[in-house]
Design brief:
The complex is a heterodimer of chains A (about 210) and B (about 475).
Chain A (H helix, E strand, L loop, with lengths): L2 H12 L1 H10 L5 H21 L14 H25 L6 H11 L1 H14 L7 H27 L3 H46 L1
Helix pairs in contact in A: 1-2, 2-7, 3-4, 3-5, 3-6, 4-5, 4-8, 5-7, 6-7, 7-8
Chain B lengths: L1 H24 L7 E3 L5 E3 L4 E8 H4 L9 E4 L5 E5 L4 E5 L5 E5 L1 E4 L2 E4 L3 E6 L5 E5 L4 E5 L5 E6 L14 E6 L5 E5 L6 E4 L5 E5 L8 H9 L2 H6 L8 E6 L5 E5 L8 E4 L33 E6 L5 E5 L5 E4 L5 E5 L12 E7 L2 E6 L4 E7 L1 H14 L3 H14 L4 H13 L3 H10 L3 H18 L1 H32 L1
Antiparallel strand pairs in B: 1-2, 3-27, 4-5, 5-6, 6-7, 8-9, 10-11, 11-12, 12-13, 14-15, 15-16, 16-17, 18-19, 19-20, 21-22, 22-23, 23-24, 25-26, 26-27
Helix pairs in contact in B: 5-6, 6-7, 7-8, 8-9
Classes of the chains: A mainly alpha (about 210), B alpha+beta (about 475).
């Protein structure tokens, strides 16, 4: 892992079009760095939920579960990448799966950078100053969305309107994937229960 | 051996004695609980304990038959509407029978009641009876002679087929009569002092959600006819506060707002907490027994902004303060003393709560415990704006129940006034009071800055000097280099 790969996401912050183009065509991106960024975002999201100051934090501490939240964020990122890949494959997208994953991870950098400083800032603010905290967080989320759109657009070589269309279709395919996975879990559970029943019968009769 | 046996038996005896003591503490046949800021249930000490049960036989009137209403007059007399026996029983303050009203002279001819289900007594001891199945309201004076009869109201807003069957009645200081009538969805009916119908107050608006609207558009005409009609809910009961505001209850299937405080213009001015509910329980099971939202059937205004609701689904009693904070919840269904089968009415007399149970035909009396009394008194002081005197009471409340959030913010406010900002912050945080926490925090932050201003200024000075010297030395180095070249 060289220094250039680690620092490349920061270059993308200021040069998203060029940066994502180089990710796709010059191999400057790294899936490992992207996954680390997704993990860090999950961590900072969970930290913001659990430790933001009393004035801005309306989250029941009993519902904060760092492990689940980090895993959930990582799963959501991978699910998005899979769904987007499955759609863009059919729509003449140029991006490979690893490009999509890299774009997803790299776009999260603004939130990774701001969530924890904003959390620390929230310890020192009073009720009428909470706008600053929300502004910082909102700006970083908007930045994330813009980067994600630009990234998907660039790696696939799409126009803007086609990118938006793929986002809608990606959402639909995420729903389908979740539905199929739930169905699969249910079926596997049924098979397991059947086998368990057979085993119990055998144990009790033989 | 004998000694050992004695030892063991004494030990066992002592242990049972200890057990009995701990049972005695929780000997109330229901839970007392409350909801915290995060809407989780937490159990508290008993706020009220059952101290008496009175059936018709105990009082010497014969069994009650499905009694529907109870009323405590200003002079302390208690009026019980014994619906099935068509009579009103008047008790004095010590639950001794005083008289039974079962008829009156109507233009010289004896007249009686038919399934009366509501009663109200004014300051002048005028008795208003909702004589339901005779379709009228009868007003009698203290001696039992007829004052007036309200019946068959005429108005354009009432439909042709409307039958006026009054269920509950209250009268304000000016003699205006407010009536909850059967199958009347338009609100509470108001009559002036001459028994003329003047209009409705407190009409409940129907809220149709977006999904319901879409569903209605998509369904066919036949389907639409079969769907539930969106009609507003009926009022179930009313109570009159001394300031002329009417407290009215209704059944809310969504469990959001079951009580309204109507001003003389008929608008709802009750205070509700942000995202809060005024409808009893926040959670309920969906099937089997005790399912569904709390069905609030009666309200008792208790002074100082405090009011108490009676729920018939689970037989619980909910007490709120003027801001809509829940103070305590107790009561339950059952057949022990202090539990209900079908509670229909609630009244408050001094420090006692009285509940009338129609199925069991009994009046149940609950008395406040130290815990309940502390909360009642502290809330009353808070309502008057006397937060300082409330602090001592709140501190005692916290000794009995360390989860009581209002107590923390109450103490926090006095600490804030005393300038102990850091301690006030801790209390406001425990009381989940963000607004006052912010005020305390701002003062704390300002103080911290003021105290450390000299250090901060010197630090800034040093940094500035270091920067300046560094810059100057770099410049001179550059000059030297130039010179060398």
């Amino acid at each position: 892992m060289n220094k250039d790969k680690i620092l490349f996401p920061f270059y993308i912050l200021s040069h998203p079009f060029d940066g994502f183009y180089e990710v796709r065509h010059r191999g400057r991106g790294s899936v490992a760095v992207a996954l680390v960024l997704v993990f860090l975002f999950g961590l900072s999201y969970s930290i913001a939920r659990g430790y933001a100051g009393f004035v801005v934090n309306d989250i029941n501490p009993r519902t904060v579960n760092s492990v689940l939240e980090v895993l959930g964020v990582m799963l959501a990122a991978i699910l998005f990448a899979v769904a987007n890949w499955s759609i863009t494959c059919l729509m003449e997208g140029e991006g490979r799966f690893k490009d999509i994953l890299t774009v997803t991870g790299y776009s999260m950098l603004p939130m990774v950078l701001t969530f924890i400083p904003a959390t620390i800032l929230s310890w020192f603010i009073a009720a009428d100053e909470e706008a600053i905290y929300h502004l910082i967080n909102d700006v970083s989320v908007v930045f994330f969305v813009v980067l994600l759109v630009i990234g998907i657009m660039t790696v696939h070589g799409y126009s803007f309107s086609k990118t938006l269309l793929t986002f809608v279709l990606t959402f639909v395919s995420i729903m389908i994937i979740i539905f199929i996975v739930l169905l699969l879990i249910y079926l596997v559970n049924q098979v397991y229960l059947f086998l368990e029943g057979v085993y119990t019968e055998l144990i009790l009769r033989v | 051996m004998k000694r050992k046996l004695l030892f063991i038996s004494v030990g066992i005896l002592m242990m049972t004695a200890l057990c009995i003591r701990s049972f005695a503490v929780s000997s109330v046949p229901y839970h007392t609980y409350n909801y915290d800021y995060w809407k989780s249930v937490y159990y508290t000490p008993a706020a009220y304990v059952p101290t008496g049960t009175y059936s018709g036989e105990d009082l010497g009137t014969g069994l009650f038959s499905s009694p529907q209403d109870i009323f405590v007059a200003d002079d302390g007399r208690i009026y019980v509407v014994d619906t099935g026996n068509n009579r009103i029983i008047v008790l004095d303050g010590d639950m001794r029978i005083e008289r039974i009203v079962d008829g009156f002279l109507n233009n010289g001819a004896p007249d009686s009641f038919k399934s009366p289900s509501g009663v109200y007594v004014t300051e002048n001891s005028e008795l208003y009876i909702a004589d339901t199945d005779n379709l009228r309201i009868v007003a009698l004076d203290e001696g039992g002679s007829l004052l007036k009869i309200i019946q068959d109201p005429k108005s354009e807003v009432l439909g042709d087929g409307f039958v006026f069957a009054p269920l509950k009645v209250v009268v304000d200081y000016a003699g205006r009569v407010y009536v909850v009538a059967k199958n009347m969805f338009q609100g509470i009916m108001a009559f002036d002092e001459n028994a003329n119908f003047t209009g409705f107050i407190g009409t409940i608006k129907v809220n149709i959600s977006v999904t319901e609207k879409i569903w209605r558009v998509l369904s066919t005409k036949v389907q639409r006819e079969r769907q539930i009609q969106f009609i507003p809910t009926e009022f179930t009961n009313v109570d009159m506060a001394p300031d002329g505001f009417v407290y009215a209850t209704n059944y809310d299937p969504k469990g959001e707002q079951s009580v309204r405080r109507l001003n003389p213009k008929g608008q709802d001015v009750i205070q509700k907490k942000h995202e809060g509910s005024l409808s009893g329980d926040l959670y309920w099971r969906l099937g089997r027994e005790y399912a569904g939202p709390s069905r609030i059937v009666d309200v008792a205004y208790r002074g100082n902004g405090i009011y108490t609701l009676l729920d018939t689904t689970r037989g619980r009693i909910f007490t709120y303060d003027h801001e809509g904070n829940l103070l305590y919840i107790f009561g339950g269904k059952g057949s022990q003393d202090g539990t209900f089968k079908n509670p229909t009415a609630i009244e408050v007399k001094d420090d006692k709560i009285m509940v009338l149970d129609a199925s069991r035909g009994k009046i149940m009396v609950f008395s406040e415990t130290q815990y309940g009394s502390l909360i009642n008194r502290a809330t009353a002081l808070r309502y008057d704006g006397d937060e300082a005197s409330a602090v001592a009471l709140w501190q005692q409340v916290l000794k009995l129940d360390s989860n009581f959030e209002l107590a923390y913010s109450g103490i926090g406010k006095s600490l804030l006034a005393a300038g102990e900002n850091k301690k006030a912050m801790e209390h406001f945080k425990l009381g989940m009071d963000r607004e006052y926490y912010s005020i305390a925090y701002k003062r704390y932050r300002d103080d911290l800055l003021k105290e450390n201003l000299e250090y901060l200024l010197s630090l800034a000075m040093i940094l500035f000097l270091a920067f300046w010297i560094g810059k100057a030395s770099r410049k001179s180095k550059q000059k030297e280099e130039l010179y060398v070249e």
